[in-house]
UniProtKB/TrEMBL annotation:
This is Helix-turn-helix domain-containing protein. It comes from the Bacteria. The keyword DNA-binding applies. It comes from Actinomadura spongiicola. The keyword Transcription applies. Residues 218-319 form the HTH araC/xylS-type domain. Pfam families: AraC_binding_2, HTH_18. Keywords: DNA-binding, Transcription, Transcription regulation. Coiled coil: none annotated.
Length: 337
């Protein structure tokens, strides 16, 4: 997890605006900015990286924002960016749609398509929260998300309110986040965004069977990831929670590489693998880690882990903790002795 602070304080007045544009572009997505007085530009931002997900709070004077095709060809993170306005007001145009939104509203745009927009102060500065998430991480079809860009979403009630509060709280509480929790927080962020978008798609009353099935799979995906710690999680409980038959559940996932049960096991093992590789979990027993992710039988967990990764959980932990400052690595197969 990385925390970055960006400020124009201490920078020569004639260099502040250019510095702000460059550094925020590095932390999030590059854009071209214009402002009325670049020599009196005072701004600050703070960003938190949860793996490939970036969340930032920004406070700055009024600006015009452009991301033309030329800039996209030079730099494209292939991501969706979510902008939540806290003060001031903003406008955005993309893919033939245009919206104006104020405090408590958010808008999504695709970094791979041109945009132009603006942010205007109603006080001294305009402030907001920006979330950037790779497109590949969002469990919604690209065609569906394309229908939702440059559309204002309210965060006044329901899941929208929960998501807005969640985004607003992450950066101010960054120092309280433990390294081993970053992956879980990233997953929750993705789930909340996907749910907000899926609800709007529901409002569009998707007509095709394929669209309805995609939305149902999304809800099931969210349901499962939030309940990995529940030992009773199974195809039966999933089907019951979504008022469908177990047979239809398996049909929904028939085109996937894994069965539903195998998928649940894979997700649990991946969470256990991450915990085992974290030095902050050094004192936590294998049984405690397994139990945290829904494995009630340590022997069963060990067999499943070895089958998936080729080594026992204990040996994987020793290998991972032995690594000095390197990236997390997949284990090498265990050799017979």
């Amino acid at each position: 997890m990385q925390i970055t602070t960006i400020s124009t304080d201490g920078i020569l007045p004639q260099e502040r605006f250019a510095s702000w544009q460059e550094r925020t572009g590095q932390a999030l997505t590059r854009t071209w900015l214009q402002c009325a007085n670049p020599y009196d530009f005072r701004a600050e931002a703070r960003t938190v990286s949860l793996g490939d997900i970036h969340i930032g709070t920004l406070r700055h004077p009024s600006v015009n924002i452009y991301r033309p095709a030329k800039l996209i060809r030079q730099n494209d993170p292939e991501a969706y960016q979510v902008n939540l306005i806290l003060s001031g007001k903003s406008g955005l145009r993309q893919a033939g749609r245009e919206t104006v939104f104020g405090p408590g509203n958010l808008v999504v745009f695709d970094t791979s398509r041109p945009i132009d927009g603006w942010r205007e102060c109603t006080g001294e500065t305009v402030s907001g929260v920006t979330l950037q998430i790779p497109r590949r991480m969002l469990p919604l079809a690209a065609d569906d998300v394309d229908r939702l860009t440059a559309i204002s979403f309210s965060t006044d009630q329901g899941v929208g309110a929960l998501f807005g509060r969640w985004l607003s709280d992450i950066v101010p509480r960054a120092e309280q986040i433990r390294l081993q929790d970053a992956s879980s927080l990233a997953s929750i962020t993705v789930d909340l965004l996907a749910t907000v978008l899926a609800q709007r798609l529901d409002g569009f009353k998707a007509e095709s069977t394929e669209s309805r099935q995609r939305l149902l799979r999304l809800r099931i995906d969210n349901f499962v990831r939030r309940r990995l710690s529940d030992p009773t999680l199974s195809p039966t409980t999933i089907a019951a929670a979504h008022q469908i038959s177990v047979r239809y559940l398996h049909k929904l996932f028939s085109q996937q590489e894994m069965t539903v049960s195998a998928w649940i096991r894979h997700l649990r093992l991946e969470q256990c693998r991450r915990d085992l590789s974290s030095p902050e979990n050094r004192a936590r027993s294998l049984q405690a880690i397994a139990g945290r992710w829904g494995f009630v039988d340590e022997a069963h967990f060990s067999r499943a882990f070895r089958a998936a990764y080729g080594v026992s959980p204990g040996r994987y932990r020793r290998q991972a903790l032995h690594e000095k400052g390197g990236a997390e690595r997949r284990p090498l197969p265990e050799t017979a002795t």
